[in-house]
Amino acid sequence: MEMRHLHALLKQRHSLGQLEPKGGKLAFVTVPRENLRGLLTELRDVHGFTHLVLLTAVDWMEDGLFQLTYMLNNRGRDMTLGIRVMLDRQEAQGDSIHDLWPTAATYQRELKEMFGIDFPGSPRIDEEFILEGWTDLPPYRRDFDSLAYSQQTYAERPGRVTHDPREYMKSKLYPDGV
Amino acid sequence: MGLREVLTPFTVWKHVFDEPVTIKNPIGRPAADRYRGFHQNDMASCIGCGTCEAICQNAAIDMVPVDGIETRTGDSGLRPQIDYGRCCWCALCVDVCMTGSLTMSNEYTWVDTDPDAFRFVPGLEEPWKDDEEGYEREGKRVLSGIERIHMEEMPPETRISNFEEIVDGYSRAEAILEADRCVECGLCVATCPAHMSIPDYIAAVRDQDYDRGLEILYETNPFSEVCGRVCTHKCETSCAALHEGDPIAIRWLKRHIVDEVPFDRRLELIGKPAAPTGRKVAIIGAGPAGLTAAFDLARAGHGVVVFEALSHAGGMMRYGIPEYRLPYEALDRDIGVIEAMGVEIRTNCRVGRDVTMDALRRDYDSVILAIGLNMGRSTRVPGTEGPGVEKAVDLLRRITDGEEVPVPERLVVIGGGNVAMDIARSMARLQMQKYGRVGVTLTALEDIDHFLADREEIVESREEGVQIFDARGPQEVVRDESGAVTGLRTWRVKSIFDADGRFAPAYDEGDEQIHEGTMVIEAIGQMADTSLLEEALTEALEWNRGRIRIDGAFRTSEPWLFAAGDAVKGPDVINAVADGHRVARTVMDELAAREVMQ
């Protein structure tokens, strides 16, 4: 009830998508990029969603989109709202909210490094975060080939042998092919 | 820098005598319950499908043989070996595991000076192999689909009054989703008698490359359109997906490929046969074994003539399997491709009547006997002699030929195999057309869980109104004073085999039933009609329990004569196809050997 009430209230001032409830205390809603800041500010200052739980991204490669998810928590009412913003994957640029929550700067730095999503104006956004000397595609992008990277980057210990189950079964069960 | 920044570091001195929150010696400290530590693998439930190896993004897993683990149906006998120099503990291997055998302990500390110690097969010796704590996925696997994509079928009330095909076939969108569930482990390939390249043609469906799919099918099976509909699909019993869900619909995906390629395109893809060799091979019987051998031999450039006693080619695929399971056009297309390879099929030509074995022996370089099993066996219980008792295969043949068959209002079928279901369901349709209702009772020795018929046959028979009485042994065909059949008397079966495993049904004589009906149809098995061989050849050949003895390469004891298919092996289309390939291979080897000798 409370989530729906809040959603209805917010909808009067912001362009919100459908509410997607996940149980009573957690729900998601998608907003256009230009509505994000206004919505976050109201949630924080008016509705008690003072805690930015996390900021993360999903690579919808086939759709040409990155999804940002801002998880906000109202501690007093034990409610969590996930705000989703879809970005053009080609452009890959979001709007920094470090001035609303200073911790956002760290998340944004991480997203820059792992997904290549830029947040202009975010403190230290271009500094290395955990990957040192990374030269490949940002590794959380789905077109990054983890297996190829690890094969190129890490040496194989000698002496390893593997077997293809299908061929091995043939050699054991019907070696002459019949 | 201000005064505050200078002084702040000194404020921590107030904690100097506090109890430290860090641990002096972290070795031996237990990790959290769900920590992802060294792997555990339940050796008994692991099937060696290698999906863990396929998904590992660090190439940390090898599939290796392990002492004491045998390769068998549905289990490669291989087990994952993990190189912890590469493992990043992401647990994708655990999440993707098809059986749930692979998990992780929460053990993460281990010191050893030998780097090779950190490359081992989990589940053998490690001290943590039975630990409860650690990471395992909750619920069933989610990285590949659990449920089979639904196949649309004609509902029972619509299909019961006609012989139209029941199964719709997948749309492209459905087929892609179903193909997407396959992890391409290939455990099924060993189970398929023809060893079809199942993962490869499923991949072709996923890639929407039907030309490639069709070419793959034809590498191992010229009856893919038939098998895509009626195969006994034992492959699906060794599918890795069945351990936590439905096996992949391998048979339907095969059908889907053939459905998507027009007949003319099929001929183009298969191409022309090799240049003529001048050798000639006679094949007796235009069933799946004979025609598969014909296809292979003709592809290799040999002249092939197939002699068929009945009016159409196809053998049991045409005369045994009802049209609602296998439409004749589908069969005709598969046969059409074989004929396009230059195979001549002489129908209405019965060996022994229209042409002699001696003539075949004289006029051809080799002769392949692929005559199938077309004579129905009888229970020989009292009352089976005389009118009103029929053999299932005879009736099915007459229905296919368009002959009028007697259709009583109530009848009883004896048998629990696919032939019994075929005749029960065919007669049910004819009853529906004639009387507007179904009156078929089916009795079998086996209890319902041990019927030889495919599961879906039993389900669909029941949906169509066939009443099944399992574990009933026929004792007598009951007749009235005039000699007309009135029913079948049965006793309850206590056991079918004796202590030595021999067929010796034991009955509870106190549990007797009379199943009413004015016709009894026996569907308890078939035998080969070997009368075409005639006396001299019958004498000369070696036999094995009433069947012509063959060696592993399908040679009979006569050097010019080979035998394959149900008549010597069995029991289904895909086995006949496999036999057809093998006997063709042997004949070609023999022909090549003779070439060298001359």
UniProtKB/TrEMBL annotation, chain A:
GO terms for molecular function: NADH dehydrogenase (ubiquinone) activity. Residues 29-146 form the NADH:ubiquinone oxidoreductase 30kDa subunit domain. InterPro entries: NADH_quin_OxRdtase_su_C/D-like, NADH_UbQ_OxRdtase_30kDa_su. It holds the Pfam family Complex1_30kDa. Belongs to the complex I 30 kDa subunit family. This is NADH dehydrogenase subunit C. The lineage of its organism: Bacteria, Pseudomonadati, Pseudomonadota, Alphaproteobacteria, Rhodobacterales.
TrEMBL record, chain B:
Keywords: Iron, Iron-sulfur, Metal-binding. Gene3D superfamilies: 3.30.70.20, Alpha-helical ferredoxin (1.10.1060.10), FAD/NAD(P)-binding domain (3.50.50.60). SUPFAM superfamilies: 4Fe-4S ferredoxins (SSF54862), alpha-helical ferredoxin (SSF46548), Nucleotide-binding domain (SSF51971). PROSITE patterns: 4FE4S_FER_1, 4FE4S_FER_2. Residues 37-66, 78-107, 173-201 form the 4Fe-4S ferredoxin-type domain. The keyword Iron applies. This is Glutamate synthase (NADPH/NADH) small chain. GO terms for molecular function: iron-sulfur cluster binding; metal ion binding; oxidoreductase activity.
